[in-house]
Amino acid sequence: MKLLYLKYIFMDHMVTDMNPWLAPTQIMDFQSSDVQEFIEQSISSSDTLEEKVIKLYYAVRDKIFYNPYAFSFDPAIFKASTTVTNGKAFCVPKAILYCAVARAIGVPSRLGFADVRNHLSTQKLRELLKSDIYRMHGYTSLYLNERWVKATPVFNIELCDRFGVKPLEFNGKEDSLLHDYNKAGDRHMEYLKDYGTFDDMPVALLFEVYQTYYPHLFTQPALKGLASHDFMKEASEETSE
Q: How far apart are CA 124 and CA 235, in angstroms?
């Protein structure tokens, strides 16, 4: 698939393929064959640009299963190509992947981060973090239709069904942020702090925040085996009780 570098005019200047919102990075390695194949399988050449970016949103949301245990302190886990290869990731790598594939088709994109409460979670995960506040939750900000819109391709539809939460849709025109309430009317998500947007993954900032609020994770040997945990199974067991 040939990379499409399109030009956009906004904010009184020209955005070209050299702009940081369109460029590949070591983390957003959309030029890799794995990411290119993911893009090819998700869109068609006949799609409009808006259709492509919407289809890629759903591909990241549903083809990459959300797994908060797919975490380590190795920065390589954040790479778009790693996420595609693993087929599962937590919110930050999924937001990175969506940012990367959007850039690959010519849509200026940035990463956004926020602290949230009442995240889609389980008791086991809350016990691991020792908190119900999830720091540096990732989302993607894209420039479409002459404005920036936020998109959160995090929770795959199967997981939403398990938790009784309506899956997030994205139409390319309006922000797609996590719902305040679930289907039963219970409080689901509360945004507490917005860190803003970044041209690339702020690895140092992320680890600094984690070190501040989750210091026990940096000394917990069990963290190394978390990726083998099945979050979908855990969610099923807790929601069926």
A: 10
Q: The tokens of 48 are what?
A: 């409009």
Q: How far is CA 87 from CA 17, 28, 33, 90, 124, in A?
A: 28, 16, 15, 11, 22
Q: Domains of the chain, with CATH numbers?
A: 8-239 (3.10.620.30)
Q: List pLDDT tens digits, range 162-171.
A: 888 888 899 9
DSSP state of 30: T
Cα gap 197→186, rounded to integer Å: 29
Backbone angles phi, psi at 111, to 5 degrees: -95, 140
Higher pLDDT, 3 or 204: 204
Mean pLDDT on 87-115:
96
Residue located via tokens 């963290």: 223
Amino acid at 35: V
Contact by Cβ (8 Å): 32, 97:
no
Largest CA distance in the chain: 56
> Which residues contact residue 35 at a Cβ distance below 8 angstroms, ignoring those fewer than 6 apart?
29, 80, 81, 84, 97, 100, 101, 104
Distance from CA of residue 198 to its chain's centroid?
14
